[in-house]
Amino acid sequence: MTKRGVTDMNYPKKGFKLTALMLMVSLLLTGCALLPTAISGTVNGPVYHGDTVTISVEEYQQLLKYAELEEMRQLVSEYYYQEPDEQAMLDGAAMGLLYGLEDPYTFYYDVEAFTKMWEEDEGEYAGIGIQIMADYSTGLCTVTRVFLDSPALEVGMRRGDILTRVDDLDVTAANLQDAVDIMRGEVGKTVNVQVMRGGELIDLVVTRAVVHTNWVNSCMLDEEVGYISLYEFGGDCSPTFNIQMHNLLAQGAKALVIDLRDNPGGWVDDAQRIADFFLPEGTLATLEYRDGTTEYYNLTTDGKEVDIPLVVLINEFSASASEILSGALQDYDRATIVGVQSYGKGVVQYVVPVGSRGAGMQLTVAQYFTAKGNEVHKVGITPDVTAEWPEDDQTMYQLGDLNDAQLKVAYDEALKLLGK
Questions:
Q1: pTM as predicted
Q2: For residue 209, what pLDDT is reported?
Q3: What is the pLDDT of residues 291-339, one digit of tens each?
Q4: Residues whose CB falls within 8 Å of the CB of residue 327, separated by 6 or more in sequence, listed in order
Q5: Active-site positions?
Q6: Whether the predicted pLDDT of 32 surpasses 50
């Protein structure tokens, strides 16, 4: 998705990531790409001669590609008017290397950012409590969620606000990471935030606090229709989803509305686990790699699938793992999809550590297709029933409020599935 789902916890947000196994695999792929491994075509490794090292011709030619960068580093080291921070320069070079791919989903995490990314997945951080979607085609950064009991909610920030300025930084999709870094910080300290709402610029002073991320929330819409809002595929969302779903069933739910609006995605494993609650064995999604190889994400079953009518609610900010889940439920005719065309992020990233300092990177490695082979990237999931969000509606509806026009359509579809 060119609109990357992020929160003020960390940016860029994990879009659609693979399993933790890849973190182990990455140890073989990163951190030693330029180290000499052979001499003169042999596999004996480098040969040390006092202060010199003998390496293969191939490795020498590889090192020559980086000679210009080393020349620049030496010039800075010798002539720059202040003492340079060499590690900061290397971090910048790493960012620039991946920036050259012109892929908004591939980027470098310095040590601090990589640590924050994993903190974010734990669901607690110090910040103001908003989720932001960055649109790389327009440069705009839209608030797609304001967390419950958050500092941002207290000062009146709303879903749909355009983030325009944080302290002295004019915010765009390109520098949203910097804005997020400012919004995170010491608990009790304030940050100045400016948003645009309906063409009007609004200045807010927000006091940072410890923000708790609730991945899932639920309630009954009536005596027979349950409602689950899944905000992101991260943290403990899949077991929490399961618990809350069974709580709804215990309350008498005979149909279920699953709300994936504004859900930017997350870990594919969580999408797979949640799909397993409703689908038997089969293919969840198909991955295609550059070399033409194909990998299948398969559903598993324990014979305990929940067999009640489902309605899934999506919007233009539903992306990545949200599209995997809704696409699978649609392909297997297991759910009615309600809303508007989803975002269309149909590529998959690995998240891997690099080097030995604790840095990392996210790298796009494959394109994915739904169970029936439908393309998602730059296309999205087409709803079975269209339900637009009213243009002039900026209301932050309470959970399960049927004054929410899109939710009301989803609820009506659930009633139809129940024969009402």
A1: 0.74
A2: 93
A3: 999 999 999 877 778 999 999 999 999 999 999 999 999 999 999 999 9
A4: 285, 370, 371, 374, 376, 381
A5: 320, 331, 345
A6: no
Could you give the CA distance from residue 214 to residue 192 in angstroms, rounded to a whole number? 25
* Cα atoms in the 13 Å half-sphere on the side-chain side of 309: 18
Which residue type does 359 have?
A
In CATH, which of 3.40.640.10, 1.20.59.10, 3.30.70.1060, 3.90.226.10 is domain 216-345+363-417? 3.90.226.10
Q: Where exactly does CATH 3.90.226.10 map onto the chain?
A: 216-345+363-417
Average pLDDT on 283-290 reads: 95
C-beta separation of 194 from 165 below 8 A:
yes
pLDDT of residue 302: 75
What residue ranges of the chain are covered by domains with CATH 2.30.42.10? 124-212
pLDDT at residue 7 in the model: 37
Strands annotated E in 342-400 = 347-354, 359-370, 385-386
Superfamily classification of domain 124-212: PDZ domain (2.30.42.10)
Asked if residues 183 and 166 have their Cβ atoms less than 8 Å apart, the reply is yes
